Structures are given as C-alpha cells and as structure tokens.
Amino acid sequence: MGVYEKLGVREVINASGTLTTLGGSIMELETLEAMNDAAKSFVYMEELMEKAGDVIAEITGAERGLVTSGAAAALSLAAAACMTGKDLVKIAKLPDTSGMKNEIIMQRMHRNIYDRCLTSSGAKLVEVGYHDRASVWEIGASINERTAAIAYFVYDPQPGVVLLEEVIRIAKKNNVPVIVDAAAELPPVENLGKFIAMGADLVAFSGGKDIGGPNDSGILCGRKDLVEAARLNAFPSYFGHYPIGRTMKISKEQIVGLVTALRSYVRKDHHARMKRWMKMVECMAIELNTLPHVEAKVIMPEKGPIRPLCIPRTEVRLDEKKLDMTVSEVVSLLRSGNPAIEVWTIHEQHLIQIIPQCLADGQEKIVVKKLKEVLTRPRGSVSPS
After folding, report:
1. Nearest-angstrom CA–CA distance, 357 and 208
2. Can you spell out the DSSP letters for 232-284?
3. Is the pTM of the predicted complex or chain greater than 0.85?
4. What is the distance between the alpha carbons of residues 236 and 56, in angstroms, rounded to a whole number?
5. In terms of CB atoms within 10 Å, which end of the chain has fewer, N or C?
C-alpha cells in the first residue's frame, strides 16, 4: 500500500503539465537520494545557500543565484531587493515602503494572479498600456523618481505587448532594473540563460516544473548586487533580523534537491524528450479520431521569440450537442476515477488538450482508454453539472 493510499488520497495521472496544484513534477531518483542524504546532517544554512547560488550562477550565466521557496517567493524577494537594496533599515521596514522607491511598472497585458507576489513586499504596481497593446513611450513616460523596477511576465507570443528587448533597452537608459517572471518558460533549456544574456537584471524560474526539483523550490538569478539584496530580505538573514522572507523559508533538503535537479536538467537529452512526447501525442490522436463526434489532432502551440520550442499535445474537439455531453462533464468524469485523470481544457472552444510532459510510459494508453469509455457512454447517462 502506497503512502497516498494509506492517507486515503487518490493519485492523479497528470495529462495537463507541470501544475503546482498537482504537485509540480515527478522528481528523479538522483534528486530524491540527494534530498534524503541532505536530511541526515546539519549545515550552516548561509553557507549552503551561498554554494547553491554558485551553481545557479554557473548554469544560468548570471552573476549570482539564489534558491527560493518557489518562483512566487523569487518575485517577492526580487521586488524587495529593488526597493531596499542592501539598506538594512529599509529591509527591516518592509512591507512599509514609505520613503522608498516603491513603484513597479507593468504592462496591463501582463497583469495576472501572480503579480500579487510583487505587491506582497510593499510595492505598488503602475499599469501602462491597454488590454490589447502597449507602447515603448508609455513605459518611458511612467518612469520617475519613485520607480523601483519594471516587471515583465513572459507570455509568448503575445501580440501588442512591448517585447522584452525594448523593455530592457528603455530600462537601461533610465537605470531601472528589469524583473522577468519566467516561472514556466522551460523548455527550451536554453531559456535558463536567455533572459540574463538579453540584459534582464533579475529572473525567476520555478524549480518544481520542467527542472524536476521540489514543487516548492524556485530560482532567482541575476545581477550580483540585487541578488545579494534579495538574499538579505530572505531567510536566513545575515544580521539576525527576521525580514519579510522569513515566511518564505526553504529547507536544506529543498536546496540540495533543486541544485541536483538543475544539474541533471542541463545534462538531459532534450531532443529525445521531444521525440518521446511527439510519439505519445500522435498515438493518442490516432486512437481518439476513431470516435464519433470527436476530432483529435496533434498541435504545437504557436512559437515565439522567447519560446522557440514548445511541448506538443493532442487536441480533442468535442461536438457537445451530438455527444449530449459537455467538456465540463467529461472532465468531471475523468477526475472522478481512481486514479483520477487531469487534462487541460479550453471550455469556450469545446476543447480538451492532452499534454504528455508529465505522463509516464504507458499512461497515455490509460488516458485514451478512459476518454473512450467516457465519450461512448449512452446518451443521457451523464447528469448536467
């Protein structure tokens, strides 16, 4: 009996990608063994953080690196660093930012549920542009003596948005740091160093997504002075005070796990991973296309300058009227099983997408089998949601 079964918790076959709500990703044996080894000894946490930061810097090409408790914490600490620098008085004041540079500029098109990670440290967001477009001059006109940073949330491609290259150019001209949220921008593996090479000052990545580290781990990398400032705002602090980062504590096991996973990630054959995913989605599309009132095909999400390599997926379009079944009902039935099956959905387009990124070998067959069972149920046997 497995640990989840003992707890009465169902396992999930994850066909929707590296979602935090499903546990992030599956850690490899090498990572788990390293974390288990780390749990057996005490260390000076400051020394461990320093050495882990060296590994991150080496791999990303940044001046400094920091392990954080997720990409969300990386954003909070990045915002704090841009407002306080290494001023211990200011660090002790947060989230009270009175008397500091505390404005972070963001394009309106980039507003999302995660921008609260920036404001949790006391920053104030300044929107520029509209819901469908923004301009370089608007960003420049918003910069003033209270500007602490410009935040850029990577959504690629996104027509109408001012591209990162232009944002960095205007920021450099005005001596304002740029914070890039690249939490889920892997693959491709090259993105680990791409944003730093472009000139971004601070970049946040999730450690628990494609990197395969602990779900609650993250990376902040970038300029030496700013990462060091973030480190002073984090836990443990160098000066015996509990800054805002005390609530973002990260364990020795997480730090070791993240570093181990990151080293493993850059050694992987990412071309072979792509071939494996493509084979999975092609087989699923062929099988599901045999069903009436169902159209299945392999798609590759639109590529852009930031994400030239995307994860293929099987897209399943349902004729809800003829099936007498909605996408919501299908998803509910998939979730109700044991193990549950989680797929990506686009309800307004009557679409289901099956993403192979987190599927173990053979699980794609289980997903198809269950979908066939659900989609061939007698009409009227599914209660409306």
Report:
1. 13
2. HHSSS-TTS---GGGGG---HHHHHHHHHHHHHHHHS-HHHHHHHHHHHHHHH
3. yes
4. 18
5. N
Tokens at residue 315, please? 């897209």
Rounded CA-CA distance 20/209 in Å is: 8
Burial 355-367 (b: 16+ CB within 10 A, else e): bbbbbeeebbebb
Domain spans of the chain, in order of start: 3-20+269-375, 42-267
Report residue 172 as tokens: 């450099």
Helix (H) or strand (E) holding 74: helix 71-84
Per-residue model confidence as pLDDT tens for the chain (385 residues) = 789 989 999 999 999 999 999 999 999 999 999 999 999 999 999 999 999 999 999 999 999 999 999 999 999 999 999 999 999 999 999 999 999 999 999 999 999 989 999 999 999 999 999 999 999 999 999 999 999 999 999 976 678 999 999 999 999 999 999 999 999 999 999 999 999 999 999 999 999 999 999 999 999 999 999 999 999 999 876 556 678 999 999 999 999 999 999 999 999 999 999 999 999 999 999 999 999 999 999 998 776 665 656 899 999 999 999 999 999 999 999 999 999 999 999 877 889 999 999 999 999 999 999 999 999 877 555 444 4
- β-strand partners of 353: 315, 344
